[in-house]
């Protein structure tokens, strides 16, 4: 029995548990409703008639409602004269909200944290954002810190992978992952259609989470990490250049989305799903399929090993393509559609709003498998499988007053205001 306890303790000491997480809900004065979206388009003097029509059509088709959030600089009409301070202030508001609540809920003090990982792709200040948090919460001098930038929408799973690897060689540790994106200094004011689209989809948000490999936290944890697979197609020039930060012909900085992005995403998705399926599906299911990976991807049914799907809410087209590709139901992707509608695409933190929706609706039962998948520039596709560790995983979090019990199919507040433009013939 003693030997069993030693074995169990050693095994738990190498595991990665998600104790809790806290998503950010900005204040109501930062809500981007239909009227204000129209005002932002109208005050951009660089846009001609065709660009305005393209932008308004994209907004109508985006799947986003009128309660998502924008940075204060944009709400104040300063999107063409943003400053570094605007990005820092956006992050400070997010840090202060989520970290304070996370420490309160988990009863863990900042000085107990052994590892801090921050991922914000488009903001890299000096001192780093990790140093800013360490200074604010007076964390220990021997804390290990990592500041990740340029990783795109899949950065939170890269951060989880970093923590998981740290846990394999360091026992009884506590880690904080902070994931967000800086929208304020990266608003695009030019006329390139391949760069305008980011303004339609990306919104303010973020998430902080506490992870551990301490066996004493096992009965308090919400989730346990089972598998994580990372796919990177960066060796291909086509994949590397399909989405990137750059300047347009007039020198306006922004984020470029190439026409070959869907093709690249499909390639990365197929490779990643084939790899995660060999881990997540039971052997009784796998032996029925051809083990050549592409054949496996076309034939597999992930629902035979996965109970819930956290699909990155990068846009209605992204969600729909994954739904079709994996033969999921509307109920399976409802959390992603609801997240896109309510909060927009909050980049690397978006997956955690999707998870929060599932938790708010009481869908997570002990032993359930939750699959997360996200895409990022480079080009990357990362996914992981969590197992619900305990009963009673239900917290309304940011969905408490957002009507989480409802659906959003057929609800498009932008159609009433801009539908005429959307339906016009070119």
UniProtKB/TrEMBL annotation:
Catalytic reactions on record: a very-long-chain acyl-CoA + malonyl-CoA + H(+) = a very-long-chain 3-oxoacyl-CoA + CO2 + CoA
Cellular compartments per GO CC: membrane
Entry keywords, A to Z: Acyltransferase, Transferase
Domain Beta-ketoacyl-[acyl-carrier-protein] synthase III C-terminal, residue spans: 304-387
Any one GO molecular-function label of the UniProt entry: fatty acid elongase activity
InterPro entries, alphabetized: 3-ktacl-CoA_syn, ACP_syn_III_C, FAE1_typ3_polyketide_synth, Thiolase-like
Pfam families assigned: ACP_syn_III_C, FAE1_CUT1_RppA
EC number: 2.3.1.199
Pathway participation: Lipid metabolism; fatty acid biosynthesis
GO biological process: fatty acid biosynthetic process
The FAE domain, residue ranges: 13-289
Entry annotation: catalytic residues: 153, 232, 308, 312, 341, 345
Record flagged with keyword Acyltransferase: yes
Family recorded in the similarity comment: Belongs to the thiolase-like superfamily. Chalcone/stilbene synthases family.
PANTHER family: 3-KETOACYL-COA SYNTHASE
Name of the protein this chain belongs to: very-long-chain 3-oxoacyl-CoA synthase
Source species of the chain: Genlisea aurea
